[in-house]
Design goal:
The complex is a heterodimer of chains A (453) and B (89). Chain A has 453 residues and is of the alpha/beta class. Helices cover 43% and strands 17% of the residues of chain A. The longest helix of chain A has 30 residues, at 236-265. The longest helix of chain B has 14 residues, at 57-70. Chain B has a single domain, classed as ACT domain (Alpha-Beta Plaits), CATH 3.30.70. Classes of the chains: A alpha/beta (453), B alpha+beta (89). Chain A: Homodimer.
């Protein structure tokens, strides 16, 4: 039996603490769309995406209104295009990205992900064409997201691709320089990318997934922060318990939404992603949770430990609330999308080096970080290599979504708008060169911990 | 379908009458009412059940929202399951 207090608590979480479901993401396999003629392939994927996702937005809105829980985004992820389009006789996949964009606009979703390649061990011809197409594809489309997985615990790191992605990111920034280099905000480089992640920019429909699935990403940093506000001076056992209980409640809502969406769309339920995803709105910040735990400003000594506790407690609380947990499932620390992170950068307490340390204990990586436009491609590649190494050795997902904004310097701010927020230009304090390191190429061998058989 | 109706706003004469009239018109049965006044603010939670398949939840939500706004009340209608899943294991 629910009590009046339960009802009031739930509604307060929604109205005051900004509890929401961040996304319902429908994964769609495009493996049956292959065709040597790229025009026919584009028609095939357009038809499949628009037919499969026709009722996604309406279903999301219906559930939102019936349960009174905001569902912020409706998204689609597709089979990595480097795989689906490999049979096309072409030297560019840009028209495919345009077909994805058109299909996504047609069904009214917020983002479509899967302009992706998985190259941790090496390139196929399709992978090469896709990666070359990324800058132009991101410049000519609105809501297509792209990702490249270039490292894993099992395969090591493809350092040729690390080098190439530094250049791809610079090129993507250049082609969208009139829009704060927004192309780079839609591009993420992974190590150990999961195939069932509902969050952008890294969502794609993994090759081992079913024909179609519905997955849900929850949110709710504001709810966790509010719960901790009543815990001033409590020890960490109590803090962890409180976060677990809160994460359980948040995730149960996600599970309910996922189950309903799956039933109404006639598409199997995939996973719940337990990530705490912040938004730029005040009161929806992961950094503020860490500060509530007692660090004066995010980035101060103690921040990594606080984040480790938060990340672990969210998983423990969320696990029991859902029948299938997957995706990234951890606290996100995207700088531009988190009001507390932005403040911490501006206050000088948070830097890219501390963020790198934080990525060792949380999901996902160096995310939505704007840097000066003249940072070299090899420095960006070297930052990617460092993150990929953290993921590879620690058997976890890490990612880099870095935006070298042309013409901007430290002290300037890049405004991306909407959920992507705004980011003060983050200094890269270490000005020494990584050119010779990145020029080597080849593969970093898989670590000893990959030999588990 | 069981629903939770929450009504919050400044107290005045006729709130319960207004809400229950609308519910009766839409053939919605009231199962439980919990109401109090705190600092002049009216708080009410009702558990209700829709009995007529022809009545759409969206219409009920819209009618109550509009009538509520006219007299400065915030009226929400939500499916009961969101509270059940959150607070029961």
């Amino acid at each position: 039996m629910i009590t009046i207090n339960d009802i009031m608590e739930t509604n307060r979480m929604i109205t005051e603490n900004k509890l929401d479901v961040r996304t319902i993401t429908m994964g769609i396999s495009l493996r049956d769309c292959a065709h040597p003629n790229i025009d026919q392939f584009c028609r095939n994927i357009y038809d499949k995406i628009t037919k499969s996702g026709e009722f996604l937005v309406k279903t999301g809105k219906d559930i939102e209104s019936e349960y009174g829980i905001p569902i912020i985004n409706k998204r689609v992820s597709v089979t990595p295009i480097a795989i689906a389009a490999e049979a096309c006789k072409t030297d560019t996949y840009v028209p495919i990205a345009e077909a994805m964009d058109k299909a996504a606009h047609e069904i009214g979703i917020d983002f479509i992900g899967g302009f992706s390649a998985l190259v941790e061990k090496g390139y196929t011809n399709g992978d090469r064409i896709l990666i070359k197409s990324i800058p132009q594809a991101l410049a000519t489309t609105d809501i297509v997201c792209s990702s490249v997985n270039l490292g894993s615990t099992k395969a090591g790191i493809n350092m040729d691709c690390v080098r190439e992605m530094g250049e791809v990111i610079k090129r993507a920034a250049e082609l969208t320089r009139d829009r704060e280099a927004i192309g780079c905000a839609k591009l993420v480089v992974f190590s150990n990318a999961p195939g069932d992640n509902p969050f952008m920019a890294g969502a794609f429909h993994g090759v081992s997934e079913a024909e179609k699935v519905v997955s849900v990403g929850v949110s709710g940093p504001g709810v966790v922060k509010h719960a901790l506000e009543g815990m001033k001076g409590a020890d960490f056992s109590e803090v962890a318990e409180t976060i677990k209980k809160t994460a359980f409640k948040i995730t149960r809502v996600g599970q309910l939404v996922a189950k309903e969406a799956s039933k109404r769309l006639g598409v199997p339920f995939g996973i719940i992603d337990l990530s705490l995803a912040p938004t730029p709105a005040v009161g929806d910040s992961v950094a503020h949770i860490l500060e509530e735990m007692g660090v004066e400003s995010c980035g101060a000594p103690g921040t990594t430990a606080a984040l480790a506790l938060l990340n672990d407690a969210v998983k423990k609380g969320g696990l029991m609330a859902s029948s299938h947990v997957g995706g990234l499932s951890g606290a996100f620390i995207p700088v531009s999308e988190d009001a507390g992170m932005i403040n911490a950068i501006e206050a000088g307490s948070l830097c890219i080096e501390k963020l790198e340390a934080m990525t060792c204990v949380c999901s996902v990586g160096l995310d939505m970080i704007a840097v000066e436009g003249d940072v070299s491609a090899s420095t960006i590649s070297a930052i990617i290599a460092d993150e990929a190494a953290i993921g590879m050795i620690n058997n976890k997902t890490t990612a880099v979504r870095i935006i070298p904004v042309p013409g901007k310097k430290v002290g300037d701010v890049a405004n991306f708008g909407g959920l992507l927020g705004r980011c003060p230009i983050v200094p890269i304090r270490n000005q020494f060169s990584s050119d010779a390191f990145i020029a080597r190429g080849g593969r970093i061998p898989a670590p000893i911990r990959s030999l588990t058989n | 379908m069981k629903l939770v109706v929450t009504i919050v706003g400044k107290d005045r004469v006729g709130i319960i009458a207004m809400v229950s009239n609308i519910l009766a018109e839409k053939k919605v049965n009231i199962l439980n009412i919990n109401q109090n006044i705190m600092d002049g603010f009216f708080n009410m939670v009702m558990i209700v059940e829709m009995t007529d398949d022809k009545v759409k939840l969206q219409d009920l939500q819209k009618t109550l929202k509009e009538k509520g706004t006219e007299i400065n009340l915030d009226i929400k209608v939500q499916h009961q399951d969101i509270f059940n899943v959150m607070h029961n294991v």
